[in-house]
Design a protein that fits this description.
It is built from nine helices and eight strands. By secondary structure, it is of the alpha/beta class. The protein has a six-stranded parallel β-sheet with strand order 5-4-1-6-7-8, sandwiched between helices. It is 44% helix and 14% strand. The chain has two domains: 140 residues, 3-Layer(aba) Sandwich (Rossmann fold), CATH 3.40.50.1000; 62 residues.
């Protein structure tokens, strides 16, 4: 029996809110002459189940190409400046690796940013596959990203076990849509959830999976 753990990245493995906010504010100032947003507002907006991020971030009804391009140009350099792994994450990943658990990352961020950040933090090689929104037609909560990772690991639902671990309702819904187990972490961007299977520390995840 294989065990497979799929992690969300931002707010689950990595605290990246400082750099995300800096790059959003850069675009706000350069392209729209808007005042800066604070980190708490940005994180809350990202984690809303239903929201219009272009409106919240740039006061536009949809993402304009100039905003998307400028953000990605800026964030490509900014994303490795201040991110850090949450307490206990390295030890958790090491323990899962020692136990032979297969690990992947499913993030709604572009794959190249995920690779840059996880590599800069020294954990990229822990993951057999990293899938960002650019590698699928539909991002979370659609299950396509998770199914791609499960297929990579030759997942057999009749004998293997798989979990999606994340801090967002979209992570939980994607797991449900992919028909795998889900764990909601409360140490990241979203400290509260009504989802019953919540874990407060990486050590709790090890107790569940191992």
């Amino acid at each position: 029996m294989k065990k497979i753990v799929i992690f969300d990245m931002d707010g689950t493995l990595v605290d990246s809110k400082k750099d995300i906010t800096i790059s959003i504010n850069y675009v706000r100032q350069k392209n729209h002459n808007l005042p800066p947003l604070d980190e708490e507002f940005v994180v809350e907006a990202i984690n809303m189940e239903v929201r219009n991020l272009p409106k919240l971030f740039y006061d536009t009804e949809c993402y304009e190409m100039q905003d998307k391009t400028l953000f990605e140009e800026h964030y490509a350099k900014q994303c490795v400046q201040n991110p850090y792994l949450y307490k206990g994450v390295v030890e958790m990943l090491d323990a899962l690796e020692r136990a032979g658990v297969k690990m992947g990352v499913a993030t709604n961020a572009p794959t190249r940013f995920a690779n840059l950040m996880l590599d800069s933090l020294g954990v990229k090689e822990k993951f057999g596959i990293i899938v960002g929104a650019d590698r699928v037609s539909h991002s979370k909560p659609n299950p396509e990203m998770l199914l791609k990772i499960l297929d990579f690991f030759h997942y057999d639902a009749s004998q293997d076990r798989a979990w999606m671990v994340g801090d967002n309702s979209k992570d939980i819904l994607s797991a449900q849509n992919a028909k795998i187990e889900a764990l909601f972490v409360t140490w990241g961007f979203s400290p509260r959830s009504e989802f019953e299977k919540r874990i407060a520390t990486p050590e709790e995840l090890l107790r569940v999976v191992l």
